[in-house]
Design a protein that fits this description.
119 residues, 2 domains, 2 strands
Length: 119
């Protein structure tokens, strides 16, 4: 299996898990334009809307702000083990995920809110 096929499989697995964990929600997922994000498995989902960013536009990628918060949590530290670092990352992700207002501020770009019809 090549890189693109493997990445496509992982994306499909991730989307399946999202749908499983949020069975009563309509999910909006923002993708860059990587080839692995283009298969029908991404586009043909009844409870999911996929928004695709223009090519070469990291400034539009909402995950950049989210990952910046994770980088802050691990910056300027030396971790004894990878497990220790992973625990800090996991804790940060859980804290961010549990704070709906902070998540809206981090990833709620105006163009996203407009595109999904909430603005």
């Amino acid at each position: 299996m090549g890189f693109e096929e493997n990445t496509s499989s992982l994306v499909a697995l991730f989307l399946n898990e999202l749908e499983k964990h949020y069975p009563d929600k309509h999910i909006i997922v923002v993708f860059d334009n990587a080839g692995s994000h283009q298969p029908k498995i991404v586009r043909e989902r009844a409870r999911m809307t996929c928004v695709f960013l223009p090519p070469y536009s990291p400034e539009l990628n909402p995950t950049e702000r989210f990952f910046e918060e994770i980088r802050k949590a691990t910056a300027n530290q030396i971790f004894e083990t990878l497990d220790t670092q992973e625990a800090v990352i996991e804790k940060t992700v859980k804290l961010l995920s549990g704070d709906e207002e902070k998540m809206k501020r981090l990833v709620g770009y105006e163009w996203i809110i407009k595109q999904i019809g909430m603005g």
